[in-house]
Design a protein that fits this description.
heterodimer, A: mainly beta, four-stranded antiparallel beta sheet, B: mainly beta, 12 strands, globular
């Protein structure tokens, strides 16, 4: 098990373009979370899935953002019509409820720069 | 609403010395988890230590220990025998139930002086 993988590590895009990020969680983890982290700040929750069901979305997730986890495994986060304010690190995390063990694991993130 | 506050944007410590990072939080939940995460320049978020709110005993992990004051809603991190590898951003965080979303504070940047 190699942990939570995110792809790409870096993405530079022009304002107005669409971008898509991928997250592969730890295989046995049924919960998957997306966070956004701007420079010098702590991560902010965006949304999370339990298996394929999207259970909660933050108000930070505008209608230009959409996330999917079609088969309860990997997840994608798409941003349409990117704006400069979307520039941030997008972090993915996964977890699994197994007794008292805490299995919340973060990926290394995708850094988005909108120019 | 749940909030986490870290009042020290930057801290520094001499190598081998001890440093304490402060954190206060607010929640209406009676049972929750508190964490300290470390984020080095590589950006990988690493769990340093966790504390279950129902446990009165303060958590300890090697050189890292916490001072958990539930009534005061305070959760400080003490790093003993500081090492150069401890230099990083440290985030205090709160989770209201097991495996729920995590609420992070703004972070404290720790520098370790050789």
């Amino acid at each position: 098990d190699t942990g939570v993988s995110q792809d790409p590590r870096h993405k530079i895009t022009k304002r107005g373009q669409n971008v898509t990020f991928r997250c592969d969680p730890i295989s046995e983890h049924n919960r998957l979370y997306w966070y956004r982290q701007t420079l010098g700040q702590g991560p902010e929750f965006l949304t999370y899935f339990q298996n394929e069901a999207q259970l909660e979305k933050s108000r930070l997730l505008s209608d230009r953002f959409s996330a999917e986890r079609p088969k309860g495994s990997f997840s994608t986060l798409e941003i349409q019509r990117t704006e400069q304010g979307d520039s941030a690190m997008y972090l993915c995390a996964s977890s699994q409820r197994t007794g008292g063990d805490y299995g919340y694991t973060f990926g290394s993130g995708t850094r988005l720069t909108v120019v | 609403a749940q909030t986490v506050t870290q009042s020290q944007p930057e801290m520094s410590v001499q190598e081998a010395e001890t440093v304490t990072l402060s954190c206060t939080y607010d929640t209406s939940e009676s049972d929750y988890y508190l964490f300290w995460y470390k984020q080095p320049p590589s950006r990988q978020m690493i769990l340093v230590i966790r504390q279950e709110a129902y446990k009165q005993q303060n958590a300890t992990e090697n050189r890292f220990s916490v001072n958990f004051q539930k009534a005061a809603k305070s959760f400080s991190l003490k790093i003993s025998d500081s090492q150069l590898g401890d230099a990083a951003m440290y985030f205090c965080a709160l989770m209201k139930t097991s495996y729920d979303k995590v609420i992070f504070g703004p972070g404290t940047s720790l520098s370790v002086i050789p």
